[in-house]
Design brief:
Layout lengths: L1 H12 L8 E7 H10 L1 H4 L4 E8 L7 H12 L3 E5 L12 H6 L4 E4 L2 H10 L5 E7 L4 H14 L4 E7 L3 H8 L8 E5 H7 L5 H7 L3 E4 L3 H9 L1
Parallel strand pairs: 1-2, 1-7, 3-4, 3-5, 5-6, 7-8
Helix pairs in contact: 1-11
């Protein structure tokens, strides 16, 4: 890790001072948490500015999606969700508050858990909140296919899934944001591949590096 930091600083010294700080966006929320935990930002202050990107699916979920989920719960559906959605606001309301009012809202770790609720409680219509990016889409799709296989007509998904490339295109094209390069998420990239990001360099002339989430991975990614 120390060696990679030295590499970063050596590369920065070759740049004209008017080019500093270099503005890099770490796209994934997991990277943001890791960077904060490791204290990387202060080590590069004045040289590399790390901008947190749109890669937290909860953070980019609009209020109207939560409002729809609350409406479903208030109208007799069993709403099933990942725990980090519970306090996302919809105006003055939230799933947490709706549950406190008596709505049937349940927290699970997997969409397959929601499927089991539907299987065990045929009298209830179970709605799973499909939140996430490419990493969670396969498991949610798997639950839908399994529901079809079991002929469970009381299982639905309220889909709020998003893809990473579309917001990256908007960000890369923004003169106001002036992002110089991107630190890209390794887990999403395992699913969508490297080609999904090639437009960043080809269309906008900006670099991007795919990296994991350990200390050395992130520092090496910034150096790249």
């Amino acid at each position: 890790m120390i060696g990679d930091l030295k590499t970063i600083k050596a590369l920065i010294k070759k740049l004209p001072k008017e080019r500093l700080p270099i503005r890099l966006m770490e796209v994934c929320g997991t990277h943001t948490v890791a960077i904060s935990r490791m204290g990387i930002r202060p080590l590069l202050r004045g040289e590399v500015e790390l901008i947190s990107g749109p890669g937290c699916p909860v953070c980019v979920t609009p209020a109207n999606f939560v409002a729809k989920a609350i409406w479903l719960a208030e109208n007799g559906c069993t709403v099933v969700t990942f725990g980090d959605m519970m306090k996302v606001p919809a105006g003055d309301d939230s799933l947490f508050k709706a549950k406190a009012r008596g709505c049937d809202i349940r927290v699970v770790y997997s969409p397959m858990d929601a499927l089991e609720f539907a299987s065990l409680e045929p009298e209830n219509h179970v709605v799973f909140l499909g939140i996430g990016f490419e990493t969670t889409a396969p498991t949610i799709a798997g639950a839908v296919l399994e529901a079809e296989k079991r002929k469970l007509e009381n299982f639905s998904v309220l889909c709020g899934l998003k893809t990473i490339p579309r917001p990256l295109e908007f960000i890369a094209s923004s003169d106001e944001l002036s992002i110089d390069g991107f630190v890209l998420p390794g887990h999403v990239s395992t699913i969508i591949g490297r080609k999904a990001y090639e437009f960043i360099a080809e269309k906008f002339g900006k670099p991007g590096t795919i990296t994991g989430f350990e200390d050395g991975d992130i520092i090496e990614g910034i150096a790249e």
